[in-house]
Amino acid sequence: MSYRWVYAKGPGEESVRNLKQELNLPDEIAHLLAIRGINSFESAKAFFRPDQKNLYDPFLMKDMEEGACRLSKAIRDREKVVIYGDYDVDGTTAVSMLYTYLKSFGLDVEYYIPHRFKEGYGINSDGIEFSIEKNADLIVSVDCGITAIEEAQYAKEQGIDLIICDHHTVGDVIPDAVAVLDPKRPDCSYPFDGLSGAGVGYKLLQGTTKKLGLPDSLPYKFLDLVAISIASDIVPITDENRILMRKGLDLINTSPRVGIRALLDLIKIPPGKVSTSSIVFSIGPRINAAGRMGDATTAVELMIADDKISARRYAKELESINKTRRTADTETMSQAMDMLDNNFNLDDLSAMVLHDPDWHLGVIGIVASRLVDAHYRPAIMLSTVDGKIKGSARSIKGFNIYDALKECDDLLDQFGGHEFAAGLTMEIENLEEFRRRINRIAGSTLSDNDFMPELEISSDLDLSRVNMKFWKLLTQFEPFGPGNMRPIFVTKNVCIEGVPTIVGNGHLKMKVRKGDSAVFDAIGFNMHAYEPKLRNCDRDKIDIAYVLEENYWNGRRTIQMRLKDIHVE
User: Fold this and answer.
1) Three-class SS of 18-73
2) Of 288, 197, 211, the residue nearest 244 (C-alpha)
């Protein structure tokens, strides 16, 4: 897929020059800081040296006083507590964190995570009944609960207090609970609303620790779980999340909890080498697999394990579940691509709405994302469960899928989500009208240009400036993620050295240089289609977009390029 290259908007040359002089940095590094809004020594220090001391006071969050007081009372009075969480990575890490924290005080704690297919997302009556059976005094929900109006009322009628920790969009009504912690509440003045669900739970631990008169450092041991939630839930790695992410990665790399260590050993990632990418592509999917395939209990049991034998057992179970998930994922993607080829004309589709009654609900969201990557238009994957159509939607820049679903609310039993991802349920007889309407909405909203994805370029880069010193400065920008993406550079008119080749499963590999620069290895994953063009073009007129990486081979460290796109004249 080819991209439109769009350069990041910077603050101007004067700002970059001032930053360069104040910090004694190369032009390229000063520019990267400036386009991130960093324009002074103090802001640069906060960016490069994240510190827990700069975390916001938890009591700036609406209802934190009530929530922390209630949870500290439960600890002092040794009450029965149920932790209620979502079945994804954010929810299971949050449940594991709160469960372990309360267990450390000797409390009788249970956790409840709804079954993805039998119960669905959020607090439900089954979870309340479970809490009643366990004689719970308090329920603490994490990564869910902000829309649980009726469920909160039912818990109250049963004499069970409820603390809600959530980070999702708030509806018109706030649940009636002891405390509703959500930085997205309109009446909440908390300085940062980008926390993950586990991040909100962590703020509750901070507040509770203060109320108990214990050291502020006590919750730090849970930052590994918070970091896994941040990376996996695709929340912005800026502001407070940058501190939580950096310190959490440090903890995983130096002293991982026994369950995470067992998982790292199994997938052969040594402590010290874990990055945001490791979480997104290796750790997170395995933790998520349990909930995707139905029951997230195994994921929680791994993270709360306190001995190596049980941790290894749960890690192996997750690996087995993840293999099953990958098989279902691959088969569903193949079926979806065949359906597009055989039943639809892609040129006539502004949005892809595909339905098969046998598709597994746990993988259709992943497949929808891959269809977006492959064809760059909104994708909605639908299956049938208990006589109703259920599905997942993914979107592209410029098309708010949640707003589009709102325009179809007369056809839907329920829906929820945000700009780029959503879930929905409808009656089978509404499918064709839903497909027509979504296509009409997308067609009237998106222009032809919108169907060609953008690649945001940080800057042009002179390859003669790239050396190990430059690389060490660049690594200080980590951890990367939304709001602080890995810089994508462009170098124009590079020269190809030798002959481009195809390696592995369709990956392009070549060597490039520019003028008197060093020769760099460059690899483009799944970019085999460019190879014929590169063999038959003017080899001094190739423009490449790429990110820089460090490569280890035979004990030697080198800088290589991972190609993102190639423009050939």
Assistant:
1) HHHHHHCCCHHHHHHHHCCCCCCHHHHHHHHCCCHHHCCCHHHCCCHHHHHHHHHH
2) 197
170 to each of 173, 180, 324, 393, how far by Cα in Å?
8, 10, 35, 20
Cβ–Cβ < 8 Å for 561, 524? no
CA distance 430 to 439: 14
CATH 2.40.50.460 fits 4-49+455-568, yes or no: yes
Q: What angle do CA 64, 66, 69 make, to 5 degrees?
A: 100
In the block, tokens 């620069």 appear at: 517
Nearest-5° angle of CA 235, CA 236, CA 238?
145
The 3-state DSSP class for residue 450 equals: helix
Tell me, rounded to whole angstroms, the distance of Cα 8 from its chain centroid.
Answer: 22
pTM value?
0.91
State which fold the 344-451 domain adopts. Answer: Diaminopimelate Epimerase; Chain A, domain 1 (3.10.310)
**Domain positions in the chain:** 4-49+455-568, 54-319, 344-451
Omega before residue 479 within 30° of 0, cis: yes
- Fold category of 54-319 in CATH: inorganic pyrophosphatase (n-terminal core) (3.90.1640)
Nearest to 356 by CA among 375, 338, 369, 373: 338
Whose CA is closest to 5, among 454, 448, 452, 563?
454
Q: Pairing relation of β-strands 161-165 and 556-568?
A: unpaired
pLDDT values of the chain reduced to their tens digit, one per residue, 569 residues: 679 999 998 777 777 888 888 888 888 999 999 999 888 889 999 999 999 999 999 999 999 999 999 999 999 999 999 999 999 999 999 999 999 999 999 999 999 999 888 887 889 999 999 999 999 999 999 999 998 999 999 999 999 999 999 998 888 899 999 999 999 999 999 999 999 999 999 999 999 999 999 999 999 999 999 999 999 998 999 999 999 999 999 999 999 999 999 999 999 998 899 999 999 999 999 999 999 888 899 999 999 999 999 999 999 999 999 999 999 999 999 999 999 999 999 889 999 999 999 999 989 999 999 999 999 999 999 999 889 999 999 999 999 999 999 999 999 998 887 788 888 999 999 999 999 999 999 999 999 889 999 999 999 999 999 999 999 999 999 999 999 999 999 999 999 998 899 999 899 999 999 988 999 999 999 999 998 888 877 767 799 999 999 987 777 889 999 999 999 87
* The two structure tokens encoding residue 312: 């290894």
Q: Which two tokens stand for residue 382?
A: 């639908």
Cα–Cα dist 468/474, whole Å: 10
The tokens describing 465, both together, are 């400036």
Q: How far apart are CA 62 and CA 59, in angstroms?
A: 7
Quickly tell me which residue has 């970019």 as its tokens.
Answer: 527
Q: 116, 406, 407: which is closest to 415 by C-alpha?
A: 406
